[in-house]
UniProtKB/TrEMBL annotation:
Coiled-coil residue spans: none
Organism: Rasamsonia emersonii (strain ATCC 16479 / CBS 393.64 / IMI 116815)
The protein's name in its UniProt record: HTH psq-type domain-containing protein
A GO MF term: DNA binding
Superkingdom of the organism of origin: Eukaryota
Signal sequence, renumbered to the chain: none
Amino acid sequence: ALYFNVINHRATNTTERRIFLHPTTSFFQRVILSPPLSKMPLSQENRIQMAIAAYKNQKVKSILKAAEIFGVPEATLRARLKGRQPRAETRANGHRLKAIEEETLIQRLLEADKRGFPIRPEFLRSMAQILLRERLQ
């Protein structure tokens, strides 16, 4: 239990022993196992980005080893290396308007507001419906 608490940074009592790593421990294992600079753990996205950088810079020889060292799913790491975008950066399904159409509406809304003529929600909705109708014809 002591080993688990120290490795997983749950040791709150300063009398608990620290574990000194063997000199042959790799740099990345020391980074992962060392105490964090802040109390906040790295998010999975940050660990994936670090694993990608380590693999691309040839600090780690295999994808499997990079996934193990940084504690991320191997399938996720492989997919990211092939170009898949993180879920937070992808556009959700079910949007009626395309991204460019939404951007156009936003620009019109901001321009009208800047001139002192804010657009009412009903008018904005009708503008969106016109865009949809034009695209579907």
